[in-house]
Recover the amino acids of this structure.
């Protein structure tokens, strides 16, 4: 029986705005294609992570990010080798920020990330809140939709490229019109919502990268109704 192994990083700390819905989407869309899906939670204090096809880390407030930042350092070398082996990573907002080099909150100690992405984040003076529409070259249709709520400003460097450009909303930093980040099969985005249920084409894109095979299309009428209802909508 074909398997999909998902490592869910720190769900007890980083799971704000229903980001766990991304795990449910990956699980169901793989099961609907006949895969057996194994989901391992990695929480604070866990010292060992086995290999997985996909790793997911959700968003959270600065306070939760402090603990996760410290915990992640234990697994930095292993997760870097997983990235270089081709495993898929998806980080949302606070989790995305910790996949980069660091997140510098206001008036607080710098939170180290694990540098899977060549990116860094500094706290801004404005909170970016609202719906987001992104134009991307990775999938067809070439739009992604979601909801953002962050004060962090993320800047990309080197070979780390954006997932797309914002048509509506602020994205990475509200200045360079980029949203999200990708390096190898590591993806980060500010899109909550949760992200994947309303972007089934991107969910399948991640699954095909992780499984190394094309997947049979599903009837995504309902998912695209939700997707299309948010395109170019700010509030
Ligand atoms: N604490 C981070 C910020 O405000 C991330 C917030 C989040 O995950 N929604 O930028």
């Amino acid at each position: 029986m074909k398997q999909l192994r998902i490592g869910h990083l720190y769900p007890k700390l980083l799971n704000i705005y229903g980001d766990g819905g991304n795990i449910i989407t990956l699980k169901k869309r793989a099961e609907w294609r006949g895969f057996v899906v194994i989901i391992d939670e990695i929480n604070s204090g866990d010292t060992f992570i086995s290999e997985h096809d996909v790793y997911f880390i959700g968003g959270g407030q600065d306070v939760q990010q402090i603990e996760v930042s410290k915990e992640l350092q234990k697994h930095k070398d292993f997760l870097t080798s997983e990235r270089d082996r081709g495993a898929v990573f998806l980080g949302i907002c606070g989790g995305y920020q910790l996949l980069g080099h660091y997140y510098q909150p206001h008036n607080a100690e710098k939170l180290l990330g694990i540098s899977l992405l060549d990116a860094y984040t500094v706290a801004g003076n404005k909170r970016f809140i609202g719906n987001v529409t992104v134009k991307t070259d990775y999938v067809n249709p070439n739009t992604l939709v979601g909801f953002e709520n962050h004060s962090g400003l993320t800047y990309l460097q080197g070979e780390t490229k954006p997932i797309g450009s914002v048509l509506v909303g602020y994205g990475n930093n509200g200045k360079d019109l980029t949203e999200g980040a990708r390096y190898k099969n590591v993806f980060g985005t500010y899109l909550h919502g949760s992200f994947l249920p309303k972007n089934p084409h991107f969910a399948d894109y991640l699954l095909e990268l992780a499984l190394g095979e094309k997947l049979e299309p599903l009837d995504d009428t309902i998912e695209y109704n939700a997707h299309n209802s948010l395109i170019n909508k700010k509030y």
The helical segments are 21-31, 62-74, 76-85, 94-99, 200-211, 221-230.
